[in-house]
Specification:
The protein is of the alpha+beta class and 270 residues long. The protein is built from eight helices and ten strands.
Length: 270
């Protein structure tokens, strides 16, 4: 395959393909801090509305203020509040704009919502078992921009199975050798590892690879945001994950817009 990528772009691409993810410094520290501040402010407002006189100053300590029974109500409230901000998606993209352009392309579509995850210590309701997004209908061409808002390590980090083992697991599932996700976890336990990442850095990962989280047995809460990105012209593989509903274009170039308009006119003629 002919490639006009730079040496650095080639190295980055090779790392992504071999390891399944890339960790890099956040490209807009101010935007990241703004997201943290907004979540702290809204969480404190939510706590006040429920009669709490305490104030949360560190998201990693949310378990000291929010009971497990109330956590999903808080998460849904924050999700709705965040995504009611028209500028959220642009600020989130800016956290990794250059990295996404290198790995995915300069014409992108972005998931319509930015997702929020909160995993407090010893909370079984926040476990997301091992899975692959493409196995559940997402585009095989997409990547996920995963952003920790608190340090993530060990059992409060997401875990990941590298591409080679993930692909092998898929083939074994198709052959009937691994009948369940529990069987996959057991078969590849030696290869599944947490993705340790500090605040101020971002993670872009291949969501075709198996990943998930487990019971947080640490003493700190983990807060993170995630959103999916795909090349604007990548083949659509699932009508429920189409442009205009699940994804929306964010960087369509002039020639692509002109071409799509020409196709529309040709369809009208036929």
């Amino acid at each position: 395959m002919t490639s006009f990528l730079s040496r650095d772009e080639e190295a980055l691409s090779r790392r992504f393909l071999e390891e399944g993810y890339v960790i890099a410094p956040c490209e807009d520290a101010q935007a990241l801090q703004g997201l943290v501040d907004a979540l702290l402010e809204e969480t404190n407002a939510w706590m006040t509305s429920r009669g709490s006189g305490r104030s949360l100053t560190d998201l990693a300590a949310s378990h000291e203020h929010v009971a497990t029974a109330d956590l999903n109500d808080l998460r849904l409230h924050l999700f709705a509040t965040l995504n009611s901000d028209d500028g959220l998606r642009r600020r989130y993209f800016d956290l990794a704009a250059t990295l996404l352009t290198t790995l995915v392309g300069n014409e992108l579509a972005m998931q319509t919502k930015v997702n929020l995850s909160i995993q407090q210590p010893d909370d079984p309701t926040s476990i997301l078992d091992i899975h692959s997004d493409v196995w559940t209908g997402d585009s095989p061409f997409q990547v996920v921009l995963w952003t920790p808002l608190t340090d993530a390590a060990d059992s409060n980090a997401m875990f990941f199975l590298p591409p080679r083992q993930s692909h092998e697991a898929f083939r074994r599932v198709r052959r009937g050798e691994l009948p369940s996700m529990e069987a996959i976890r057991a078969a590849y336990a030696a290869h599944i590892a947490p993705v340790n990442i500090e605040t101020g850095r971002i993670l872009v990962f291949n969501s075709n690879c198996l990943h998930g989280n487990q019971l947080n047995t640490t003493t700190t809460s983990r807060w993170s945001l995630n959103c999916r990105f795909v090349s604007l012209l990548a083949p659509a593989t699932n009508p429920e994950r189409r442009l205009g509903s699940f994804y929306t274009p964010i960087s369509a170039r002039a020639a692509t817009r002109a071409g799509l308009e020409a196709l529309r006119m040709l369809e009208e003629e036929s």
